[in-house]
Structure formats: structure tokens, C-alpha cells
Amino acid sequence: MRVPLLSRLTFSGQFLAFGMIVLLAGMITLGLWAQREIRQVTSRRTAEVTALYVDSFVAESVQALATGSRIDARAIATLDEYLKDTALGDQFVNIKLWARDGTIAYSTSEDLIGRVFDLHEELERALTGELVSGFTDLLNSENEYERTRAESLIETYAPISRFGTGETIAAMEFYQHPGPLLAAVRSAQMRGWSVVVVATALMYVMLLGLVRRSNNLIELQRAQLEGNVTRLSDLLADNRRLQRRMRDAAGRVTALNEQFLHRVSADLHDGPAQCIAVALLRLDTPDSAETSAQRPSEAVRTALDSALGDIRSIARGLRLPEIDALSTADAAAKCILEFERISGTRVDVEFVDVPTQAPLATKITMYRILQEALANSYKHAEASTRTVTLGMESGSLRVEIGDDGPPFNTDGPWREGALGLAGMKERTEMLGGEFELLSSPDGGGTRVRVILPLKGDPDD
User: Fold this and answer.
1) Contact 428, 365 (CB under 8 A)
2) Each residue's pLDDT tens digit, 153-177
3) How does residue 452 score in pLDDT terms, banded at 50, 70 and 90?
4) Model's pTM, two decimal places?
5) How far apart are CA 279 and CA 301, in angstroms?
6) Architecture of domain 322-460 in CATH?
7) Domain ranges (residues) in the chain
8) How far is CA 71 from the centre of its chain?
């Protein structure tokens, strides 16, 4: 599918393209208007100068037209003196003096004197006192002489007033070649167009700078917004993944808790319950049935002491030491020392940049994982060395427990219900952490690697 060129332009490109069109249209409109105004003003100026000349030199000689349509020979001679063979007369192709009834009372073309023509619009306006000037195509019937001299002339009608009353008694018509006037008009128009073009160019350059600056700011803000949207989308995706993991982990923890309680129940049934049952049986046995080697009270005491020892052992395994007031490193060291005391074995420890404090839930999870991983290694790994490493990784707490025992299948049955490894994994994922179990078949032993978050209040 072809994409229109306009849609491929940036915001600034589209704005500047439309701006150029608007400015060009405005420039052309303004230029044409100025051209017309210059032409009209120049023509009007010429007409005003002509009218001033008529009032100054001609009006006094033609006052007889106030009562008739002709002037005498003396007036004609005076007009010839002013209008023929003079610098002013040389500027005109022809000059006509119109009486109110359409009679040509005087003309520099003598054969027109005395002839009568119909009044046309421009002449009628002049006879009402209006100064009229403009280009004419010489199509009127009285323009026979002018048509032999040119195809187009400037025609000016100057009204002549009666002294004392201001009444228009005649109109003087002048015909001029348009060349000099058009040259002046073109010169003025060129200057006008130059001003318009320069002003338009300056406006466009200023607009270009403003739009580019605005566009750069918009592009920067859009890039920042897109980056924020991308980061937010990533965070939302991570949050959804964590929520799914937490829901899955919560479900598995519920099942593991049931299995754990079942194991505790089995331990109570097989240990303390059996001893208490033996004690009850001894209490129900008649004294005559007892041998002299052991009195009933002694047998009961022995069974109850054994049951009490089993109960205390189970309780110690369930109760977590007071670690909330301990630092992260001290809590880990306490767990490792307790394991060494019970097992009689040594653990190699390496603490690197361990955070002083961590959220209580993180410390509890770390303690239980260390406790379970070391116990599993002691019970099942037949290892000669064990190591614990604590440190930082990407702002989180890293816990690693390893040994040199024989390898095993990490995809094996522990994933289907063994409480130790499964419990460590679920504890980790409940906090949003990462759990990894590695067992090397080339004799490298087994390693548990856990990443726990450090976000939140350490006292939580």
C-alpha cells in the first residue's frame, strides 16, 4: 500500500509545507492588490495634476460655456497658446473641451470642433463634477483621431466650474500615451513586489525557526513518552509474571504445608505417641504381672522421658530463632554455626558485600534455605566439604550452598513432592526471587543458588 507523501512528513514538515502555500497565496494576493492600488494611485495622481492645470489656465477662458455650447475665437487662440506647441501640450495625444450638450467646443484636432456626440458614462460623470481617469480602448465614436495614433491611451476628464457658483459648466478631456505612466507604475510595482517577497521570506524563515524548535521539543517529549510507555509496559509485564508466579507458588505452598503437617503428624505418631501408649499400657498392667526387675513407675517414667525428648526435638525444628534484630550476615552465620554444632562438620563461608539489613521476610527465607540445604547435604550427599557464599547481585541478595557430593537428576522426584528442595523453591518464588538447582555429572557436586529481593522495609 502506497503511503501518501504528506503522511510521511514530520509535523514540522507538514506545517512548513502548508505554511509555504499560505504565505505564497498571501504574497500573491497582497502583491496583486498592491499592483492594482499603485496603478490606480498613479493614474489618479496624473488626473489630479491635469485637473489642477485646467483650473489654473483653462477655466478662465471657457466661462462662456456656462450659457452656451461654443467659445469665441479669442478663447480658442488662448487655449491654443496654452495647449499647443508647449511642453505640456507635447505630453498629450489630443485634448477636447466638452460642453454640457455633448458639443466639442475646442480640440487640438481642429476638425472635431463644433461636432456633437452622445454623452457616454465617463463624460456624464465628469459633467457632474467628478474627476475621471483610466485606460481606454478608444471604441467610442469620437475617438476616430485617437485610434490613428495608438491602440490604447490614458483618458482623463477634468470638470470645469463656473466662477462664483461652483457649477460644472464643461469638461476637459486629455489623452496621454500610457508608456511613461506604465513605466512609473512598473517601477513602483517592482518595488512593491520586492518588499512583499522580502517580507514573506523573512516571515517564512522566522516561522521555520520557530516550528523547527517546537518540533524538536515535541520529538524529544515524544521519545521520552515512548520510552516511559515501553518501560511501563515492561514493568506491567514483569508484574503480571510475578503475580502468576506468586499465585502458583501460593498454591504449591498450600500443598507442601499439608505434606509438612502430615510429616509432623507421622513423627508425633511414630515417636512421642508410641512412647505415651507404652506408658499407658504399663499403667494398665497389674502389679502382680510385673517382674521384680522393673517397677511400673520406672517403665512409665522411661517412656514419658523418651516422648518428651521427641517432642522437644520436633519443636526445635519448627521454631525459628530470633533473627529479626540480627544483621543479614549474623543471621546467616547463626544458622551455619548451629548446623556445625549439630552435625559436627565444618562449612566454608564467604561473605562479600553482604547488606547490613534486609527485609525480615528475606532474612527468614535465607535462614530456612540455608538450614534446609545444609541438612539435605548432610543427610543425602555424602559430601566431604560444604560451602556457603553470600553477596550482592543486581541489587538483590545472592545465596549459594554447594558441596562435593555425588550428582543427581535435578529434574527428578523432588519436583513432584519432596518437601526439602520444593519448599526452598516455593519460599523463594513467594518473595519474587529466583531459585536454581545445579548438579554436575562430572564430579562438581551440587549447588543451590538463590536470588532474594531486598526491596521493602527491613523491619517488615
Assistant:
1) yes
2) 888 888 888 887 888 888 888 888 7
3) very high
4) 0.42
5) 8
6) 2-Layer Sandwich (3.30)
7) 9-187, 271-319, 322-460
8) 86
